[in-house]
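Lecture 7, part 2: worked example. A protein chain together with zinc ion.
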Amino acid sequence: MKFEITILGCGSALPVVHRNPTAQLISVENNNYLIDCGEGTQLALRENSAKLQNLSVIFISHLHGDHYLGLMGLLSSMSLLGRQKEVTVVGPPELEEVIRLQMKVSKSYLNYELIFKPTSADDLNLVHEDKKVFVYSFPLKHRVPCTGYKIVEKQRMANIIKSKIDFFKIPVKEIKNIKKGADFITPAGKIIANNRLVKPAPMPRSYAFCSDTIFEPKIVEYIKGVDLLYHEATFLEELRNRAEVTFHSTAKDAATIAKEAQVKRLLLGHYSARYTEIEAFRTEAETIFSPVELAEDNKVFHIESTRQG
Ligand SMILES: [Zn+2]
Ligand SMILES: [Zn+2]
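Predicted complex, written out as structure tokens:
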């Protein structure tokens, strides 16, 4: 079952060729979510053969243009393409006003219902739940209110071993309970322990997205132990002062957060337009934490399942 992150844009304020502003498509099985929606996102979705109509929820981190200026275009195209299923947008409270005003002045309307859920940049908050995942927002430290997002897969049930069903003649009505952890009691009263009947369920996977933020140790508690952490790294160490003034992070800052939070992998992005080569981001970060991966437009990062026990 897939859990993958497609990078639709990994640049920062200024778009450059081959590097769009921030947007990521998160696919968990057949559910598709968008985090941030910089300019050009709908074309990047098409380039990656992602169907716009399959998106269910759009999460926006903050109201700097490089994180949401593609949103109106995307919402409008979904309507033009005949979408009727509702779209949920999660983001800073003022975003709803921005969307409604743009609709009003252009005398436009959407064919579908737009559900808006405001975030609050104060604590860890559950902002979305469906059959597959929980999504939480949590505060980052930036020049305007900004939240990161954490997507946590729901616990799946264990897989029952088919040959055991035949061997112990387990009735169909017992199977669900066994998947949930029950033992099986034979008609003769013999107890068959659950661990003889099932393969353990995969561990729930998790992904955290942190963009944009200055180095902020408080983030650690919100993202502890995630399988994959995306953390912005706008600058290299040589421009540490610039990072501090603009409320952004360096590659080393991101690596320090990853290390403190004991995450499994770190993914860097949101590189300043001044950097054409990005390998130095990995080199600097890996002096503190490893493994480090580098976001690049149209690159896909997978989070694999591991079994419990
Ligand atoms: Zn940004
Ligand atoms: Zn920003």
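The mean pLDDT is 95. Residues 215 and 253 are 6 Å apart (CA to CA). Keep this in mind for problem set question 3.
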